[in-house]
Amino acid sequence: MIGVGIFIRELQYNLYSLWTLILLALSSLLTHSGGVEYASRDAVTAAAAELGIATMAQEWAHRTSFAAVGLPLLAVTVVVWFSGSRDRRYRFSSLVNVKPIRTFGLVAARLAAVVCGVLIPHLSGVIAGVLVVGLTQGLWPDFGIFLQSMALNLIPGLTAWVAVVFMATSILPDLKLWVFPVVILWLVLVNVPSTSMFWFYRSIGKPMHPCADPQVWARVVYSFLVAAASFFILLWAAERQRMDQSLPALKQRARGDFRVAQSPLAGRLRLALKITLGAKLPISLLAVTGLAVFLVSSLGILKHQPLGVKEYFTLAFSELLFPLVGLLVTYGIVADQHNMAEIINQRPGGEGKALEQKLVGLSTYLVSTCLVYSLWLHIFLPGLSFLKAFGVLFPSMVALGGLSILIGSFSPSVIWAYASSMGYWGAAYYLQEKFPWFLSPLYHLAEYSFKYRQDLLWKNKTILLVVGTAATVMGLWKTLRHPAQH
Amino acid sequence: MSAVIKIAGLTKTYPNGKAALRDINLTIAPGVHGLFGPNGAGKTTLMRILATLSLPSSGQVKVFGYDLVRDKQAVRALLGYLPQEFGFYPHLTAAECLDYLAILSNIHSARVRAARIRFVLERVNLWDVQGEKVGTFSGGMKQRLGIAQLLLHDPRVIIVDEPTAGLDPQERVSFRRLIGELCEAQKDRIVIISTHIVEDLSHLAPELAIMDKGEILFAGTPAQLSIRIGATASLEDAYLALLKGR
């Protein structure tokens, strides 16, 4: 009974949020843009024809899930991340834990509310996008296939993914440190249904009758098992957390005492190097990429997948996450999320030092991460020179870093960093013909950069560098004169 | 069902080997009880165990006849707890936060919840700002909202950990008055307060326990403590003398 009440209240709060609008807008826009692009074709693609798909309506019905599982999935992840970590962020747990609700009811209500809270706007956006494409372009999906694709592909796959992310973000104390291990978890647990979400019609036996395909039902069962396993892990961890019996690795560590280094500048430099070159980033990259390579190798579970799927896996995840983590770190440095600026500024001769430190920390972070990742790319793609990899990465990272600095100088709330990044992605997509350089960092963020778009990025390196530096300077100038208030 | 808390042979040892509580024996009858001691004395550990948020290593605690470990849910239904460190969702209003916690406290009817929320917010003088977001509240207002949330289900046992830390003198006086009223309203209610502030104890707690290094050094009334140390000693001097004499 309490569980039902909590579910209704949680769902209400989840839906009554800016994120609902963002999810709705993103999934409808991407479905719409995918539909517009597809409507401009004359006939079904060769790959679809090979699978026995005869009409545009049939292929479009399948491709709606293609449009719905790219960037929108990333946005869903961010929303679930915020939801899963909120008790910890706002120190609300101790008030909740002492209430007479059973842990099972609490966990089940919260998980169900977060699943519904993201699926409702996300799927509504997909349907809205499909409707707009139908009304404006005259391209309507085959209703039966569309329904089956939603019910047997998107809903179970997304539910499993949301359950995994909610579990991980609820029990892991500092997700920035855990983001790569979580991706490994994703690779191991969800990637098979996630692959089917993205490449649904290409990876099943009967694309014209998904309902009659045992492989599809096996995937539904698999998604259900992943979701159930995530729920039980979460339940176990929440019960232990409630009684202060968490495993040491899952306990939130107390921050060490604040120490001012002899030279604040050297201190910040050391911190930036520690963040970048500490064991976590290189090891995580190695683990994620290594595992991906293993999965697509002749020994891995994805060995029978089409070439496109294999390519998607090899470098995609590290490539996708590397700049995202970078964005978060640069944002954290600039938005002064640890409230260090005042402490530094009030020290004798400390005026302006905070800004100087941020600049040094930021530059060190950007240069060293790009160096590490360029080396990484060079090892995995021997045809790509180290210099070119760095020349492609660094300007993109400066452009993205500049964007986050500019946003951070206006608002310390991380929600604006995400909202603006998504706005930028949307604008870049629509302006790609006129201003290809504007799109470059987007391609860097997407999974195609080094396989398909490295030349575009290389060509536009100077303009990206200039734009990024200008954004950085403007952001820091604003921070120095009128810092954003917490 | 006896309206007391009985603690017998309670110990708590953390996995790193640190003993936070050693053989605590205490009987807590209805009324206000102060828990006093220096930092690291074990007050918060004891309170967290009483609030069912930590398991004892050994010993037994009975709350109104319920075993704290076996009958956790029954004990939780009797409890109102305000931890030392807590927060609320800043984007919710005071009333929304309380509504959420009221559902968790097993108050199903929306009408009853609304009435209780109004009642507790009026008790802590926050009714006027019930529609404002908690993120805009001052430290003192958040502390009062913390008190309000623990009163939602009219608990028989109230446990508050350092409730007056960070409050200004006026708010401290209001808080003491509120605690007094709570005990007046329900005679068999047990209120346990841990504090560093001697003044709070002298105003609030007719019974007190002094802890140090995980042990109870003294349990009784302030007057008994003064007599033990020296009849003319103030409560503060008596406390310091007790710690020094260890």
Give structural attributes.
A: 486 residues, mainly alpha, 23 helices, 0% strand, B: 246 residues, alpha/beta
Count of strand segments of chain A: 0
Averaged pLDDT of chain A: 75
Based on the coordinates given, report the CATH architecture of chain B.
Answer: 3-Layer(aba) Sandwich
Spatially, the strands of the biggest sheet of chain B line up as 6-7-8-3-9-10
Oligomer: heterodimer
Give the distance, in angstroms, between the N- and C-terminal Cα atoms of chain B.
38 Å
- Topology as H/E string of chain B? EEEHEEHEHHHEHEHEEHH
Outline the secondary-structure elements:
The complex is a heterodimer of chains A (486) and B (246).
Chain A: H1 2-15, H2 18-39, H3 46-50, H4 56-68, H5 71-89, H6 93-97, H7 103-137, H8 143-171, H9 175-189, H10 191-198, H11 214-242, H12 264-277, H13 280-296, H14 307-314, H15 316-334, H16 341-345, H17 353-380, H18 386-410, H19 414-430, H20 436-445, H21 449-452, H22 454-459, H23 461-481
Chain B: E1 5-13, E2 19-28, E3 31-36, H1 43-50, E4 58-63, E5 66-67, H2 72-78, E6 79-82, H3 94-104, H4 110-123, H5 139-151, E7 157-161, H6 169-185, E8 190-195, H7 198-204, E9 207-212, E10 215-220, H8 222-229, H9 235-244
Parallel strand pairs in B: 3-8, 3-9, 6-7, 7-8
Antiparallel strand pairs in B: 1-2, 1-4, 4-5, 9-10
